Hints:
Elements: H1 7-21, E1 26-32, H2 33-41, E2 45-46, H3 58-69, E3 77-81, E4 87-91, H4 93-103, H5 128-136, E5 138-144, H6 150-162, H7 169-176, H8 179-189, H9 193-197, H10 202-206, H11 209-223, H12 231-242, H13 248-265, H14 281-297, H15 306-310, H16 313-318, H17 327-343
Parallel strand pairs: 2-4, 3-5
Antiparallel strand pairs: 1-5, 3-4
Amino acid sequence: MNGNISANDIKKAEKQILEQQARVDYDIRDFPIAFIVENFDQGEYFVPEYQREFVWGEDYKVRLIESLLLGLPIPLIFLSDTESGELEIVDGVQRISTLSAFLNNDLKLSGLKKLDSINGFYFKNLPPSQQRKLNSKSLRVIVLRSNTSEDIRKELFNRLNTSSLKASDSEVRKGSFGGEFLDFIIGLAEMPELLQVAPISEKLLKRQENIELILRFFAYSNNYKEFKHGVQSFINEYIESEQENFDAPLMEKEYRRMLEFARRYFPNGFRKNKDAKSTPRVRFEALAVGINLALRENENLVPKGIERWLNSDDFKSLTTSDGSNSKTRVKKRIEFVRDKLLNGE
C-alpha cells in the first residue's frame, strides 16, 4: 500500500478515532442574549481557572457590541454541563462578560467607526427598539454534555484559542480598505531596498510585515504627536485620512531618502546586530521616523557619533517592548533619534 500503511494500521487508526470521537458529546442550542446575561449575573455559569487569565481590552469589548448591533455573526460560545448543574464556560467568557457589562450599563461605547453616532452611549441610551433587539438576539451555543471530561474541555479551549493562525494586521487591512493609497504602499513594499536596511524573516514577510512597517513609517512620520493608544486603530485612521488625498511623489521621495540615508550611515542597517535576521517594529519606528524627521529639517544632514547613541542604554531602553507603545514612549524614541542625528553627541 502507499506509504507502507498496512490494513492493520488503518484498522487501528479507525479504532482510535472512534474512541476519541465518543469522548465528545454535545448539543447545539440558541439562547437569547438576555437569557445568557441573566444566568451569568446570577452565578449560574462557572468560569474555570484556565479561562480567567484571558482579559479583553476596551477596544475588543466595544467592537463586539458594534458587531452585534450591525447584525454580524460572532463566534460560537462553548458551555459544558457539570454534575452540579452549573454550566461551565469552556470558551466565551470574555464575550459573555462584555455583554453583561453592557446590558448592566457598565460599559460605555467609544471609538466605533461604523456606528460613530452612538459613541458615548451606554445600553440605556440606545433607542428602545435596539435595546429589545439586542436582548432578544439569539447566540449559537455548543453545550458539551456532562460526560465530557475536563481534559477534553481544556483541549477544546486550547485549540480554539491557539491552533488557528490569526490574520496579520496587514492582511486584515487589505481586506478592509483597498484603494489607491494601499496599492501605493504595497508597491513600495515590493521594492527590495527595505530589506537591505531592515531585514524581515521569511515567515514575517509572508505575513506582509513589510507593508506593516511602511504604514507605520508614514503614520508616525505625519501623526506621531496625535498617537494615543492602540497602534492598529491609529494606523487604520491614518489610512482612512489618506484614502482620497495623498501626495505619492513626496511620500515616495521621503521613503527612498530615508532608506538611502540608513544604508549610507548605519553599517548594520536597522538590525540589532549584523547577524539579526529580522527588525523589531519599535526599533524600525524609532530609526526610520527619526531619520525622516531629521531630514525634513536638514536634507543635507551628515550625522556624527551614530554608533555611540545607537548602542547606548538610553536607546535600548526606549526601544524595548515593555511599554513600547505608550504615547510618551512613542514620542520619546522618535524624537531621541531625530535630535541625536541633528545635534550629534
